[in-house]
Amino acid sequence: MRAEDERYFERIESRLDEAFDRAERAKGMGYDPEPEVEIPVAKDMADRVENILGISGVAARVRELEGEMSREEAALELVTDFVEGTVGDYEGRAGKVEGAVRTAVALLTEGVVAAPIEGIDRVEILENDDGSEFVNVYYAGPIRSAGGTAQALSVLVADYARSLLGIEEYNARTIETERYAEEISLYDKETGLQYSPKDKETKFIAEHMPIMLDGEATGDEEVSGFRDLERVDTNSARGGMCLVLAEGIALKAPKIQRYTRGLDEVDWPWLQDLIDGTIGKDEADAEADADAADADTEAADASESGGDEEHGDGTEEMESGDDEDDALDGRTGPPRLDPSTKFLRDLIAGRPVFGHPSAEGGFRLRYGRARNHGFATAGVHPATMHLVDDFLATGTQIKTERPGKAAGVIPVDSIEGPTVRLANGDVRRIDDPEEALEVRNGVEKILDLGEYLVNFGEFVENNHPLAPASYVYEWWVQDFEAAGAPVQALGDDPAVDLEHPTPAEAEEWATDYDCPLHPDYTYLWHDVSVAQFEELADAVANGRVVGAEADGGLAGTDGSAERAETSDGAAADGHYVLELVNAETVAETLENLLVEHTQREETIRIPEWRLPVRSLGFEIGEGGSIGRTWDPADLSPAAREWDAGDSAIKAVNEVAPFEVRERAPTRIGNRMGRPEKSESRDLSPAVHTLFPIGEAGGSQRDVGEAARGRDEQGRRGVVDVRVGDRVCPDCDAHTYRTTCPDCGTHTEPYYECEECNQVIEPDEAGRVHCDRCDRDVTSPDWFSIDIGEEYRRALEAVGERESAYEILKGVKGLTSADKTPEPMEKGVLRAKNGVTSFKDGTVRYDMTDLPVTSVRPSELDVTAADFRELGYETDIDGEPLKFDDQLVELKVQDIVLSDGAAEHMLKTADFVDDLLEQYYGLPPFYEVEEREDLVGELVFGMAPHTSAAVVGRVVGFTSAAVGYAHPYFHAAKRRNCDGDEDCVMLLMDGLLNFSKQYLPDKRGGQMDAPLVMSSRIDPSEIDDEAHNMDIVRQYPREFYEATLELDDPETVEDLIQLGEDTLGTDEEYRGFDHTHDTTDIALGPDLSAYKTLGSMMDKMDAQLALSRKLRAVDETDVAERVIEYHFLPDLIGNLRAFSRQETRCLDCGEKYRRMPLTGDCRECGGRVNLTVHQGSVNKYMDTAIHVAEEFGCREYTKQRLEVLEKSLESVFENDKNKQSGFADFM
Amino acid sequence: MPLETPVRIVRELAARGYNAEQAAVTLIASTERPGRTLERVVEHVDDAALRITAGDVRGALGDPAVEDPPVSTGEPASNRTTEDDDRRDTSPEETSETASGVGGERSPRNDTDGGVDTSTSAVAGGGRTAAGGGPEHGSPAASRTADPSLRSLEVDGDVTGQSTGTGEYGDFVKVFRDRYEKLSKQLRGRVNHRPATAIQSMSGGTDAAMVGLVNDIRSTKSGHWLVELEDTTGTFPCLVMKDREFAGFVDELLLDECIAVEGTLSDDAGIMFVDSMHFPDVPRTYSPNTADRHVQAALVSDIHVGSQEFEADAWTRFADWLHTEEAERVEYLLIAGDMVEGVGVYPDQDEELDIVDIYEQYERFSEHLKDVPGDMEILMIPGNHDAVRLAEPQPGFDENLREIMSAHDARITGNPSLVTVEGVRVLMYHGVSLDEVIAELPEEKASYDDPHKAMYQLLKKRHVAPQFGGKTRLAPEEKDYLVMEEVPDVFHTGHVHKLGWGKYHEVLAVNSGCWQAQTDFQKSVNIDPDVGYAPILDLDTLDMTVRKFA
């Protein structure tokens, strides 16, 4: 590690230590459930694994093994340690297996996700029918977050431990085998599996599995056949077990086999049959299917190993080049990828389609990585964001055609913007967001959505064949250089703009150097047919060059082409325009070519006409006269038949005096997915204090109200709630509080066995078990708490008045094991500062994740001085950091807060300071006045389904509603950026207020809680998805050429440096170069229109209106899909739900599967009512019919709606009491 | 050839948009040049006419034009020239196939063969000349000696036009109360029942009995069964010990069916130990009604016109056969739902449709129906593929669809309907609940291979779709149309596309197969449908013959 990086981490850690010290002092007062900070720091993965598991000694052993072998091998190696007892002190054999299995899963998931603690319930040793013993592993639902490979290996680890311990294999009874099969198909039907093994396959696995897979019930639906088995204690589907068997063993058989081969003790020969795919098929077609099955498994494997296991859902469909197909059907043309319609599936009302699959007018693929680009993101021009009626904003998720499935949208203004036709007939490219806003109301048609920036790494990550690249500046300039041009010299010439040359320069370069025409003047000839091309040539031949100021043709009355006025060349470029007779087809051709022009009633005027005309094979003579150089007969048959005549690119190259490349061969369709997110995470209803007040506070759980109210016995402010019984170690007083009411000493939970009244101490693992009565002992008991007194005491303790806030909300009851209430003082201060608590006592703020590798202090609303203070010394080019707009490479743990998050963090900081001063009596920690004061402060970043927080440092703010951070920071949390969101917490808040004692005592309760924190990111220990990000300034010419052949990304991987190339070197924390800049990382609208529009109907109207405007979108198809995927399922689903619905008592909430014959509630006599009403069934009916009509949907769709409408009438209208019509009175 | 002639005439008329009385067809067939006659008849009749009567034919024959010199090409040729449909071109071949098929496949599984005998005798008696005739028309009768005046067909329990429910909570309560009322009536005489609330206050150890809807069924840890019964006052838990001889009944129980139990209350009076269990059931002594004359009904269902898998050829063979002497006693055609394949029944259905337009599907169905002799009485109920509401009871087709299918003047009623045909009560029900019965019950009690056994269960429960909240959808009406208040003599369903029949306490249960070949979906779940079967029921004996046309 470089000294600079070391300093950076030390800086973070020293601030962390400072916070830790203060927090320890505060906690030491004993006011909290535990007298110490409950989030241990993990310096590396080994630490995290140990902390998450709570098994001491694991970390040291993992570190030892890490250097020598792979993580998977280390997991197996650790089995020996557990069995021999050198790691973990387990007495029983079951415990040893359990420890080994949990450790294996934790290791394989980098100690971040909750699967090892939540996904494995326990391990038991049971008896086979022959009296021998076998191992039973009891899985739970959260094992899902471990991913297939870790799931499968957990089984192997259990088996290895079993064999080392000399326990026999599990012999499944036939009924158990059958049960597995029935249960897995039930689970697949109910919940869905990524891979659905056939019954035969399941049975085969069950028969051969050397250990028993078991688990807890996760669904309500029960198996019907194999019920009430002796060794299976539920009739419902066991979700964890199903996942492990289907997505683990069945799907990952080849991976497990790799490891079984290396172990002498375990032998799973039957895996080969699974891998061969011969199970579950008839003999006859077994052979035929074997290859296909093989390919399936491999594909699944590839996507899994490449992808984040947590997010990967299903195998990728690989599109392959169609060049071979083309050859077969005799059609000539360039290689292209087949359009994929997958992203259009399940289109939702209100979320627009931006482009149909590979449709002309859609986004044009450009390769490159902008600085705010990373894994699963897509660069879009901010002008496009505005022009699609603000539906796209920074962080909005889109479902995309390729290369991945979804991406987060980021603004990049160094790519080309959209081209539009305005109501006044102007066809313009809009490269400025301001201009986009100005013209937006006048946009008649969006002819082209502009470029769409995707980085090479994205194709590597998705293992997607490269799509043909657009001809762009960064490619052209390499061609230019290769052609022998003095690029260096021209670049240094202040009079020359290489990136945007004048037409004359472009023409000169193209002809003099035999280099393809500059992309700025390369039009989309491949999007017009040869016929259109010829028609345009004819139109140009009949056109005339007129003075730009001339209005209507007065200046150019005599034959244009030979006009003398255009004698000087400069005039021809600048002051004269080409005027054509307006014909619809000519206008359309120009629009498709993206040639800027103006359409008037009679004429079309093209201001920048020189190169379009040259490309059409015209000569511009002395004085600007234009003359055609070719006859239709000159076009070769090959040019005419290229791409079946649909592409004029060959024709252009035959008639033009220079080479013209394909400007935009790849269009990428996409549609909106989720909107971006930036909002505080509140429980529902919001909670200020985790103090229970029963029903007393009303539906708001208002503590003030509870304190004033009277209960049934007339006691004021007294509620009976179940809270943990605690005892004072000094004076033996019993209380529910964390401090002794008599002497102020910190109290501890009190466990008394209900049967024998013996006081039990928790064992090391935290279990409290009465051995005499063989039962688990818990501490909660019923207490009558005087809320009024508690409330007054809390206010007094922190010196606040009730008027300091509007309301203090508590909770109804506690869900944690020991039911330890939080000191109400904390709630008072939260209410005062306007923040609420999450279930674990922390204050959280959610943001969509986006990556950024370089920033400008100015765009983050901070200064270069601030940045220098943070330890930034140079900009990306190594120049000293002096100015606010210098580009600086972001450090891995630095994050940018959204405006909303900053405001929320300020409130949290105030709350934390108040807490320290007014409750703990310690000096404040933050002392923030304005948000600039937050710069340099530490936060926790944490993703759902994980149990490890990552420490981050605030370096600035953005108006985009997202959390920008280094891609490695997101990957350390196990997130990617395709619209994922997660939360930040202020460091001190987490240290002071988090307690495991608050976590719900149910499956999944430990998820989403910071059980451990990583203080520094090791790039080797993060989700390897992030390693596929490319980190170069320029892609080589060979890369662009490879894309035209649809090569696999591996073929050029060596040419472009990826993050993984620097892993483990001194360079691993720096050098994240990008190919494209953007002015600001928060361009475009701050919020997607999806969030600013009101009702679903408004959103849908806007969606359909946009679909009419976009050339790349077939609005009928959109309407059709909205009806098909949103309205019809809703209508059908609700109608079905109506006719077999549950009912519920309005008074006590009791549910009934069927309407009680008594009519009233059998529990309380209250009113029972339906759960699905007419209103919710037919809410979309009229809209759907209207949309179907207006957008000309298929008869089939209309008739489906018609039939449904009649069904609704039939169910909800009385035949004998129909609304009478006119005819009834005649 | 003589066999074909009426069929060809009917087809030719259908192709021109006419339906014809059997007598009219016979008249045309009996002329020297039927083709010529047909042309005359068509010219003669009023443009608005849909149905050609014997009177029309006679009118046309009276026309001197008939006397014109015969055209030498003859009838078959003239037929051929007007034919524009491929199907018809191949019809002679198929027809002969059918003839042998019918002979060979006669009553493939059933041992009754009354139908065959009678039809043979009918041929002898009727011959091919016109003889006798209906008094109303005073016209010569066809080879089919149908006498419409002898027929009777009444419909009961039809929700069509009676759907008064508006989807309120109260409607649901009403329908279940009505179910309880009607079914508990069947059980009350058999046990000395007490309301749930009364049982709740009885003391431990006493004997008790209760009639209730099954509210919940659970197995206990020790393998016994806890059945919670509900009546209009409340619920009471009843325990069926696994070792009782009737414990097997629990396997057959469906939620929300009505049963009676007798037993003893536990010591704490919290539960009843069941000693006996009773179902509404069909009385063992039940003796079914029969028709007074020898007359037959064809029971078919699941035609699925519009599906790519619709077996048009099989249907044509069936229709052709109905024109034969053998079939002359078949005067009724009862169709148990799914006339067409429908639209939007399952996702992406349009890709598997031969006719995508729902109205065209019904038009085509109507065309196929015209192949059936015009003098047959036809009755049809909708199924889950039809364009009516899915929730049961389903009303019959609306005006628009009736209009499309008006040519044959078929009776259209709701699903279910109790149809009394010359005294024989035929309960027509499409059969959606069979899926649920088959899924819930053990295989030996109900399976797709023996659909009639699932039907026995429904007869035993005296309800066509007891379980609420599962696969069957319920539309609440003021009464429970799905209860079998009266015992039917014949129970006719379809839906599962499997042929099966048998008798349960003397009640004939028939599931009549389908006219749609195996679909991809069926292939995927390994269902092999029974295609092209027409069970022919003797209404005077309730014996049945199954004919195969596929």
In short:
Chain B: InterPro entries: DNA_pol_a/d/e_bsu (IPR007185), DNA_pol_delta/II_ssu (IPR024826), Metallo-depent_PP-like (IPR029052), Pol2_small_arc (IPR011149). The complex is a heterodimer of chains A (1226) and B (550). Chain A is of the alpha+beta class and 1226 residues long.
Strand-helix topology:
The complex is a heterodimer of chains A (1226) and B (550).
Chain A: H1 3-28, E1 41-42, H2 45-53, H3 58-66, H4 71-84, H5 93-108, H6 115-119, E2 120-127, E3 133-139, H7 147-165, H8 174-190, H9 199-208, E4 212-215, H10 239-250, H11 253-260, H12 271-276, H13 283-306, H14 323-328, E5 353-355, E6 363-367, E7 377-380, H15 382-387, E8 397-400, E9 406-411, E10 419-422, E11 426-429, H16 433-439, E12 443-448, E13 451-454, H17 456-462, H18 473-482, H19 487-492, H20 503-512, H21 530-541, E14 544-547, H22 569-574, E15 576-581, H23 584-593, E16 597-599, E17 603-606, H24 610-615, E18 618-620, E19 626-628, H25 637-641, H26 649-655, E20 667-668, E21 670-672, E22 678-681, H27 703-708, E23 718-724, E24 726-727, E25 734-735, E26 748-749, E27 769-770, E28 775-776, E29 780-786, H28 787-798, H29 824-833, E30 844-851, E31 854-855, H30 864-869, E32 888-889, E33 894-898, H31 899-919, E34 938-942, E35 948-958, E36 962-965, H32 967-972, E37 981-986, H33 987-993, E38 1012-1014, H34 1037-1044, H35 1050-1053, H36 1089-1092, H37 1096-1109, H38 1115-1138, E39 1143-1145, E40 1151-1152, E41 1168-1170, H39 1174-1177, ...
Parallel strand pairs in A: 1-38, 3-4, 6-13, 7-9, 30-36, 33-35, 35-38
Antiparallel strand pairs in A: 2-3, 5-21, 6-20, 7-13, 8-9, 8-21, 10-11, 10-12, 11-16, 14-15, 15-17, 16-17, 18-19, 22-30, 23-29, 24-25, 24-26, 27-28, 30-37, 31-32, 33-36, 34-35, 34-37, 39-40, 39-41
Helix pairs in contact in A: 1-33, 2-3, 2-5, 3-4, 4-5, 4-7, 5-7, 7-10, 7-11, 8-9, 21-23, 28-29, 29-31, 38-40, 38-41, 40-41
Chain B: H1 4-15, E1 19-20, H2 22-30, H3 34-44, E2 51-52, H4 54-62, H5 74-82, H6 86-89, H7 91-105, H8 114-126, E3 153-156, H9 169-188, H10 196-200, E4 207-219, E5 225-231, E6 234-240, H11 247-252, E7 258-265, E8 272-278, E9 296-300, H12 312-322, E10 330-335, H13 358-370, E11 377-380, H14 399-404, E12 411-412, E13 417-421, E14 424-428, H15 432-440, H16 451-461, E15 490-493, E16 499-504, E17 507-512, H17 520-524, E18 533-538, E19 544-548
Parallel strand pairs in B: 1-2, 6-8, 9-10, 10-11, 11-12, 14-15, 15-17
Antiparallel strand pairs in B: 3-13, 4-5, 4-7, 5-6, 7-8, 9-18, 13-14, 16-17, 18-19
Helix pairs in contact in B: 1-2, 1-3, 2-4, 3-4, 7-12
